Amino acid sequence: MTITASKVMELRAATGAGMMDCKKALEETSGDMEAARDYLRKKGIAIAQKKAGRETNEGAVAIRLDDGAKQGSIVQLACETDFVARNEQFTELMEQLTRQALAKGGDDLTGQQSIAGSGTVAELITEGISKLGENLQFLAADRLAVSGEGVVGGYVHSNNKIGVLVSLGSDKAVDSARLSELAKDISMHIAASNVNAVSEEDIDPKAVEKEKDILVAQAKESGKPDDIIEKMVQGKLKKFVAEITLLNQPFVKDPEKTIQALLDENGKQLGASLKVEKFVKLQF
């Protein structure tokens, strides 16, 4: 049968596959549009399997906020080259993934049914491999929500290699635009800094114990008495905790004040108590 150009264009618009691939799919399926879609999906899986072993050292991080800035999602997807990471089709795929994570959460993202159409998110990524001609690897996704009043804000660095989401709580309703700007500033700080936890209470005890073991081993090399070593270790451990906790760090845009001081200052101006509830940072 004759495959018309309009039918090829219709299949291309629906799948994003190349013109020649669409034409061949329609020819192989006698013009059956649904069968042609399945043909292209199977072809995409075959291509993905061939590329699966190739290294993915590039990629991007993207975020999305809902209309009320009460929830946000963040996704990290790897590819082979920076050229593809900046490709329009890759960017569109990232947008689909952030919408998915915002709607359904980041847990087992690739196993979720796609909100964009039929099939799973894993199949959506497989189609992306077919279209882009590179191996793609899903790395991480998360969703943050603020409890009660407050906002979720975020920041993605200009190279799309680092992204941060922050949930900023408030004990009362205040100017949401002002809170969003503050949440973005704090996200920018986290992107530029070595931050492991919001406060000392949030640090993994195992991480502190590991650092203590290292400090003790280093201190013993000095040959000093045990009581002196203990004081040395405690002092350095306190400094370590301060350095990796967000609230204790000097704000990158104004090092004269800490993040806690920044929160207190803005809270006083807004007549509210502000608190960083949680943050998520993904980076290459």
Description:
It is a single chain. The chain has helices at 5-15, 19-28, 33-51, 82-85, 88-104, 121-132, 176-192, 205-220, 226-244, 259-270; strands spanning 58-65, 71-79, 137-145, 149-156, 162-170, 250-251, 254-258, 274-283. The model has no long low-confidence stretch (mean pLDDT 89). The N and C termini lie far apart (50 Å). Helix 1 (5-15) packs across helix 2. The longest helix is centred in the N-terminal third of the chain and has 19 residues, at 33-51. It is an alpha+beta fold. A hairpin with a 5-residue loop joins strand 4 (149-156) and strand 5 (162-170). The strands form 3 sheets. It has a 3-stranded antiparallel β-sheet with strand order 1-2-3. It has a 3-stranded antiparallel β-sheet with strand order 4-5-8, with helices on one face. Among the domains are: 5-51, Helicase, Ruva Protein, domain 3; 54-145, Tetrahydropterin Synthase, Chain A (2-Layer Sandwich), CATH 3.30.479; 204-244, GTP Cyclohydrolase I, Chain A, domain 1 (Orthogonal Bundle). The chain contains 10 helices and 8 strands.
